[in-house]
Amino acid sequence: MDYQRTKLKWNGWGWLDQDFDLHGREEGLWDFLREQLGVEDLPNTPAMPLEEMPLPEIRISTSQVDDLIDLLSADRVCTDRYERLFHAFGKSYHDLIRLRRGILDEVPDAVVYPESAEDLAALTQFATDHHLALVPYGGGSSVVGGVEARSGRLAGVLTVDMTRMNRVLHIDAESLTATAEAGIYGPQLEEHLQKHGYTLGHYPQSFQFSTLGGWIAARGAGQQSNRYGSAAKFFAGASVVTPSGTLHTLASPNSAAGPDLRHLIAGSEGVFGFITEATVKLHPLPSSRDYRGFLFSEFKAGSDVIREIMQEHVDVAMLRLSDAEETWFLSQFKSIGKPASWASKATSAALDLVGVGEKPCLLLVGLEGTTASISISRAAIARIALSAGGIPIGAKPGKGWYGTRFDMPYLRDSLLDRGVGVDTLETSTNWSNIQHLHQTVRNQIATSIRRHTRVGTGEPIVMAHISHSYPDGASLYFTFIFPMSADSPVTQWRAIKREVSDAILENGGTISHHHGVGTVHVDWMTPEKGDLGIAMLKAVRDSLDPHGLMNPGKLLP
Amino acid sequence: MDYQRTKLKWNGWGWLDQDFDLHGREEGLWDFLREQLGVEDLPNTPAMPLEEMPLPEIRISTSQVDDLIDLLSADRVCTDRYERLFHAFGKSYHDLIRLRRGILDEVPDAVVYPESAEDLAALTQFATDHHLALVPYGGGSSVVGGVEARSGRLAGVLTVDMTRMNRVLHIDAESLTATAEAGIYGPQLEEHLQKHGYTLGHYPQSFQFSTLGGWIAARGAGQQSNRYGSAAKFFAGASVVTPSGTLHTLASPNSAAGPDLRHLIAGSEGVFGFITEATVKLHPLPSSRDYRGFLFSEFKAGSDVIREIMQEHVDVAMLRLSDAEETWFLSQFKSIGKPASWASKATSAALDLVGVGEKPCLLLVGLEGTTASISISRAAIARIALSAGGIPIGAKPGKGWYGTRFDMPYLRDSLLDRGVGVDTLETSTNWSNIQHLHQTVRNQIATSIRRHTRVGTGEPIVMAHISHSYPDGASLYFTFIFPMSADSPVTQWRAIKREVSDAILENGGTISHHHGVGTVHVDWMTPEKGDLGIAMLKAVRDSLDPHGLMNPGKLLP
Prior knowledge:
The structure is a homodimer.
Chain A: H1 26-37, H2 62-71, E1 77-78, H3 81-86, H4 93-101, E2 110-112, H5 117-130, E3 133-137, E4 157-161, E5 168-172, E6 177-181, H6 186-195, E7 198-199, H7 212-217, H8 225-228, H9 231-234, E8 235-242, E9 245-248, H10 262-265, E10 274-281, E11 283-284, E12 288-296, H11 299-311, E13 318-322, H12 324-335, H13 342-354, E14 361-369, H14 371-387, E15 391-394, H15 396-403, H16 408-416, E16 420-430, H17 431-452, E17 461-466, E18 469-470, E19 473-483, H18 489-506, H19 525-544
Parallel strand pairs in A: 2-4, 3-4
Antiparallel strand pairs in A: 1-2, 5-6, 6-10, 7-11, 8-9, 8-10, 12-14, 12-15, 13-14, 13-17, 16-19, 17-19, 18-19
Helix pairs in contact in A: 11-14, 17-18
């Protein structure tokens, strides 16, 4: 795959030549959204073209640019419009509405492309000498402002694009680990591993446009993290170039030699240094996959089933439970532009008859492994799900989900063209708090949208699912769709985000299960970690980066 | 159980009224050891009695003692000989040879017994005001000097015995977690949990004499950690009283809100503060157990079987593979004083016949769970073990091990009475390095013992086992028995320890898999973590304990 920057959208998701394919059902979608959101009209709100974007002046001198070229090479130091805008932000709703309207406080003064740890050591020295901020940039898929160009109190911003450091360095077949450079994209890494019969199994929704280093820096989790582990789990060791030198962690399976520094690197979001290479834990490529669905009449029944499956330690790759609103929305979305058939009406009546009601909750169960291990898991899950009133609905919903699992972010761009806002947020909590947190956050999102949006008679669309689960609790992932404020979408979004984040913290949730902190969640770090926790992290940062060059404004308040 | 200090040995292992029961086979043991070690005689080397011990003067004033009594109460501030000596050291070989000979540089000036986080906050304030070191002390079973009374540059040492903080505060049955005060002993915690149908499942060899807080502070691992997790894994959240205030971590199942502070607390060995309460992950009490043995002709064959079992993610509680030397030693030890029977001779011949040779390696496989889960695991393990040439030898060796799994430390006291030194050390590494590390460390231990011991014609006894395993590697646990130097056993031990620890680090091992760092491994922390890693940890320490009151001399060089 060619990840040259000009092949990728600078103000939207993914490949430049790819959009969400509605297969001619556009008008049906707009009708449906107008009805749901209770608005008369969905205005055309096109993005500002690249050449019209107001671009802040470059704050570094031409002689500094020349010095950078001497350090690297001319083709690895970019100051052109496209590169600077491409690297200004990540891919959050907040980022896109700013990019689409030309609301830019800062963009990188230059974008540099290191090819080695030595390049990075030279860059940190350069940044130290010239008081410049360094922003590590992998795939740039952060949805929390993790790669935003911020100079803080420094003289300018060098965004350091890591994607030329993309080699797999070593596979240890005996220990089932691989060591790779951190700028490698998901598909590049998996292609190499799968050629040798292995997989990392880490497939976040951003898989195609995110990198190994970013996964670890943000403590991400893939859709099949139940089986393959979140980044903090599959991460076995790293080299990190910091402004104070290079840190190497021992890739030991387990150690009692004091605190585990790997858990400081996982989640460090570039504020401690550049992850240059990482060792990760592999799995044999599964020979078999089985994704299928169950319906439950209540979210709690489905969530109890997930809890039991996790507490029995069943080998499962994915458990994804949509609440009634999400289940309904997804089924409506699928049938947009299709005539309500006799068959679908009959299905609805049948659902009612078998007792899951007309607004059931869909649980997708994903199994991966050998046919033998899958059949053991399938039996355990059927036992647990059926005895909790689950209705098995076969492999079709699983297949449907699997086939389109990376596509949704493309749809956002289409919605933004029509004044429709869509954002997601996520948290996690213990099982004993999950129903309460689900309800509270749902209600808060709806309340905040109503408060900060001039809507007609309709309702904002708020839906949620459990996507990552553990013996002691699970994540909750919320999606909300709302009429974008015509005048001040950024203010609208910030107000909603603030109130909902407060509600998450006040009700026992974490500010993020797998998106990270970045600039967007930084105000909730002190409530979550406490003053002392923040003091500990700042002390670590100061020990590695005394001048605060690394990714200012992210992670630490 | 009554853990009053006077019920416990102050200079040996465990209960005052309990010794290793040799069932009248003492003479056989001494004959066997004389022969193995190649020494003419095993001298009587009794321990110095309590009343003869040279006791350093108390360095705090009587008015300070009075102030402490005002803070706590008279019965919770101890300055008597027994309490001071009891709390001077942990339970390592290095500790016991010093205690038995009266080699004491420092002992606590007072021993205090807090009963609440408020008591601990008052004690940290008192220590700050009076420049005193605070040594957190749980069960005192550290074998790495983790609870040694060291004042560093301070005016004296208060050892803070946590064992009155021993309540289970809460069981969250839905999330399968429990929160307890950190000074609770293993048996107290398990008794409470098991009454409610749960277990933590953490059974280190020190189980009877170690505490929840100590397990977490030292990043310990129980004998069944494959199933129940090491302390760093089962640890879900804590409150920590530090000299700068109290740190609470969110007990969230998983979070991307920056680095995971729990992994700074796990392994902190009291240098950041006092763990006052901890939340841990529970399991339903297993309804069934199955421990059984296999023999392999080579260590590598057995170790490959463990690797395969782990990489297939089979649900197994314990995999314990003794090398040929340990297998032989344990079988000899068991048969001491028993006539070599026709049956045992036949067994030996049979072993040879089936192809495992006369010096096989014993793998103990421990399964816990439901009868259904155990039967699934048993089938998988049989398949893997048999196809690798393993000979199943039934449940007897498993039962034997299980019944005596906490007893071995008592034997050390008997050996020390007869001039026989015995110590253990442990490490871990990746599978691709495990054979090399096993051989190298074995050889180094033997070489170092020979170099630093005046032996006759015999050989030191050096043996090892794998006791904790992971998909990417495993631990190696070495036991060595040698004639104790009559004049300078401490010098002898230090020389051996230094050379072997160097060899471990030079050959890719960690300085400890589950014993911790304490004073004994502190010199190998920089080689393992690197200068930057140590700088990070010191920065964290300074942010919480700017005057360095907490457990001086441990963990950080």
